[in-house]
Amino acid sequence: MCLSGCLAAGIGTEMPRRRFRNLALSWLFEIDLGHADPKAVLARSAEESSPAHRAAHQAVLGVLGMQAQADQIIGQLAKDWSIERMPPIDRNILRLAIWEMVSGLSPAVAINEAVELAKAYGAEDSPAFINGVLAGYLKREEGALSG
Question: HSE on the CB side for 79, CA within 13 Å?
């Protein structure tokens, strides 16, 4: 699997606006799966000043800053899946999407983008799984706001 290399190169992305998500997912995946030092991973691209790199850097810092909270949410909503048993790509897509929603991105956009990442990099059942968990999160949050 060429996840890190393909994501970092932007291979398989048709829309430039998705570039930062691909970069962020690549770095999150490397940090998670390879137990890499986040500072070292982010330092490798620090000299890059493109909007995509800056946005990806911000996203990774945001996800890492709320990872425990996101993992708790994911664990509550992912029926029969502990966060540790979940495929690393799926849990990092979910972490990124939850961070985006908490940060104010339209939930519909965050869910759609997460599903697209799952289609590109996840297993066959990843898009449905990602959609289900994020839809559950959205429903729970909307219920909390209305209740």
Answer: 6
Mean pLDDT of 69-82: 92
What range does the domain containing 45 cover?
3-146
DSSP string covering 85-121, please? TS-HHHHHHHHHHHHHHHTT--HHHHHHHHHHHHHHH
pLDDT tens-digit profile of 100-145? 999 999 999 999 999 999 999 999 999 999 999 999 999 998 877 6
Question: Which has more confidence, 44 or 13?
Answer: 44
b/e burial code for range 127-138 (CB count within 10 A of at least 16 → b): bebbeebbebbe
Confidence (pLDDT) at 102: 94
CA angle 87, 29, 57 (to 5 degrees): 145
User: For the domain that residue 64 is a member of, what is the CATH number?
Assistant: 1.10.940.10
What distance lies between CA 107 and its chain's CA centroid? Answer: 13
Q: Name residue 107's amino acid.
A: P
Per the structure, the count of domains in the chain is 1
Alpha-carbon span 88 to 85, nearest angstrom? 8
